[in-house]
Design goal:
The protein is mainly α. It has two domains: 1-128, Farnesyl Diphosphate Synthase (Orthogonal Bundle); 130-308, Farnesyl Diphosphate Synthase. Helices cover 71% and strands 0% of the residues. The chain is built from 14 helices and no strands. It has helices at 4-10, 16-32, 34-43, 49-66, 71-91, 97-108, 112-128, 135-154, 166-187, 189-195, 202-207, 222-242, 255-275, 288-307. The longest helix has 22 residues, at 166-187. The radius of gyration is 20 Å and the shape is globular. It starts with a helix and ends with a helix.
Length: 308
């Protein structure tokens, strides 16, 4: 793995103060997304390590501000944050190390400017969200918030706009994040039910003779919960299958990382299907040996390619 200090230099970050700002974002991402951090560091070209870290840290900080609490408080927090972000991108300075690193990243990668704006605009959906009544509501959420969140990093590996691969790349990103979001909603089903904000559309509960609050019962209907989980997992699987072309739509140097993103979601899907109704009581993670094999195989390919 390339040393972090070397990766900062490869990214063009040489000023000590700015390097310290990126260091702070690195610590954040390593703490809350250690597996994604490791994959990025092992598989992406070193020049992208710093911008990916800055984008992911910004996304995480935004989500933490608006993910929980009363709707009015979340909306007010987003308005204030939007103003801080907009000012930082215009002026380059901020009291927040996360925003200083983000502004520096956008300066070096101008295509991210519009992606940050799309993400903040879509964050209004997250700040006001309490539940999805229908599948259409869920799809709108994916379009307006989940996809812009993914594009904060995906834009760094995307083919050039207007090229033959660009439109299919966007479509596959949309499919990937739909599957990913469904898996997140299933993995967090118990926790979300406790908060009163489940991510599965309410009509899907009705189809299986359930109500969200019944998930908190001492002995919920395991058969009905299993059917609900199975149906949502099937939809996630359909989306992930439609995303399988994604690695071939990016340049060769980015394919190991993108293949790993897709494959890890497939492993999560397999784990969820095995759990069934037990997602309410057990954590759901890809099997460690399988995930290590995926990462190790792709890291070996990267190492060989860099030696040529």
């Amino acid at each position: 793995m390339t040393r972090w200090s070397t990766a900062l230099t490869r990214a063009g970050v040489r000023e000590p103060e700015m390097r310290a700002d990126y260091d702070a974002q690195r610590r954040v991402v390593r703490r809350f997304e250690p597996h994604a951090y490791l994959a990025a560091r092992l598989l992406l070209p070193p020049r992208l390590h710093a911008p990916v870290v800055a984008a992911v840290a910004f996304m995480h900080l935004t989500d933490e501000l608006i993910d929980a609490g009363e709707v009015d408080a979340r909306q007010e927090a987003l308005r204030a944050w939007d103003g801080q972000v907009t000012q930082a991108l215009k002026q380059g300075g901020s009291d927040s190390s996360a925003l200083r690193a983000l502004a520096d990243t956008v300066r070096r990668h101008p295509q991210l400017g519009s992606r940050v704006r799309d993400f903040l605009d879509g964050a209004a959906v997250e700040a006001s969200w309490t539940a999805f009544e229908t599948e259409a509501d869920f799809q709108a959420y994916v379009d307006q918030y989940s996809l812009p969140a993914l594009m904060l990093t995906a834009a760094l590996v995307a083919p050039a706009s207007g090229t033959e691969r660009y439109a299919p790349f966007l479509r596959c990103c949309r499919e990937l994040i739909e599957g990913w979001q469904r898996l997140d909603n299933l993995a967090d089903l118990r926790e979300d039910a406790e908060r009163g904000q489940v991510g599965i559309p309410l009509h899907a509960f009705t189809e299986h003779g359930l109500k969200p609050q019944e998930l908190l019962a001492q002995s919920p209907d395991a058969v009905a919960v299993g059917r609900l989980v199975g149906a949502q997992a099937a939809l996630a699987g359909d989306a992930l299958r439609r995303a399988q072309a994604l690695p071939e739509l990016v340049d060769a140097e980015f394919r190991p990382f993108v293949r790993t993103l897709v494959r890890v979601q497939e492993l999560r899907l397999e784990a969820l299907r095995r759990k069934g109704a037990a997602v309410l009581t057990d954590s759901v993670r890809p099997p460690v040996p399988a995930a290590v094999r995926v990462l190790g195989r792709e890291a070996l390919l990267v190492r060989r390619a860099r030696r040529r």
